[in-house]
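Researcher: We plan to redesign the surface later, but first we want a full-length starting point. Tokens attached.
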């Protein structure tokens, strides 16, 4: 159903907007924007499968990008050494912030929505303090070349996003780590009785979500050349929408990376089509919110159908 909705959206916008929507430049921009969002959505999918939620990924992306840019400007140089230092810093920042979320959720047993909402504000506030609220630029030339670089005609950022999704899918469906993730989301108490280190696992899951947000922050810098502090306020909701549209359930225990990848394309196509159609950015936020509500309703319907099937099974 989600795939059909995606195809319908593409057809509708192709008819309404014509060549600008289907142009090579616009398709490339959609893939680039979708790649950043897919990396975020992969981490959020893991969190949702454990019956958790992460509202902080957009701010963690911004904070990681800001610290990375500051460090690279301090180190200086236009080569790959500086760029890789920036990458390590961005990933480390994301990992630490995500891990803090995980510790508070797993060991302090705080509500994940409240914890990650608090991190959303804290990370964004720290980024604004560090920059005075101004976007930073001046990354190494090697990093800029990477942002526009391609391999076999495919942008490097798209290749990395695809690699992240494939690795995450394999880990989720073919490893003990993945089975434990599903088990915790399906029944946390049963997972504890089965000997699964639930608290440690949850801390790792939130750390992973933060790590991927840090990676997305560095990749975003390489594409756009600036920190774009105010441009990621809806990232967490968009990533959650992608995961839920793709089949992940807020009740936990259900979700796939392949489904998330398909679900991720819907808000990306919507945003691009609405921009080309000339709709104001404020209305784009309204549409994003409406799609999220629709995704939640779809999740509820799936949940009801699943419960009915379970109750209908004999003995």
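Model: Full-length starting sequence:
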């Amino acid at each position: 159903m989600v795939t059909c909705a995606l195809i319908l959206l593409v057809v509708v916008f192709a008819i309404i907007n014509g060549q600008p929507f289907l142009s090579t430049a616009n398709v490339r921009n959609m893939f680039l924007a979708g790649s950043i969002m897919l990396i975020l959505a992969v981490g959020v999918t893991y969190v949702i499968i454990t019956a958790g939620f992460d509202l902080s990924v957009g701010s963690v992306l911004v904070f990681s990008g800001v610290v990375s840019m500051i460090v690279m400007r301090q180190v200086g140089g236009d080569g790959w050494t500086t760029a890789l230092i920036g990458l390590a810093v961005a990933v480390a920042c994301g990992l630490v912030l995500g891990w803090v979320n995980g510790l508070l959720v797993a060991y302090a047993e705080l509500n994940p929505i409240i914890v990650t909402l608090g991190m959303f504000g804290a990370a964004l506030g720290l980024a604004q303090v560090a920059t005075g609220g101004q976007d930073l630029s001046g990354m190494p030339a090697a990093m800029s070349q990477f942002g526009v670089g391609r391999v076999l005609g495919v942008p490097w950022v798209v290749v990395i996003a695809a690699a992240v999704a494939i690795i995450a899918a394999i880990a989720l469906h073919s490893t003990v780590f993945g089975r434990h993730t599903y088990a915790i989301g399906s029944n946390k108490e049963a997972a504890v009785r089965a000997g699964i280190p639930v608290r440690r696992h949850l801390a790792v899951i939130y750390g992973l979500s933060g790590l991927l947000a840090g990676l997305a922050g560095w990749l975003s810098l390489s594409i756009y050349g600036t920190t774009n502090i105010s441009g990621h306020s809806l990232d967490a909701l968009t990533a959650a929408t992608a995961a839920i549209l793709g089949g992940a359930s807020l009740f936990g225990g259900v979700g796939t990376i392949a489904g998330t990848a398909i679900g991720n394309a819907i808000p990306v196509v919507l945003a691009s089509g609405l921009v080309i159609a000339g709709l104001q950015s404020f209305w784009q936020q309204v549409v994003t919110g409406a799609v999220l509500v629709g995704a939640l309703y779809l999740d509820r319907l799936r949940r009801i159908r699943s419960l009915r099937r379970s109750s209908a099974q004999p003995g």
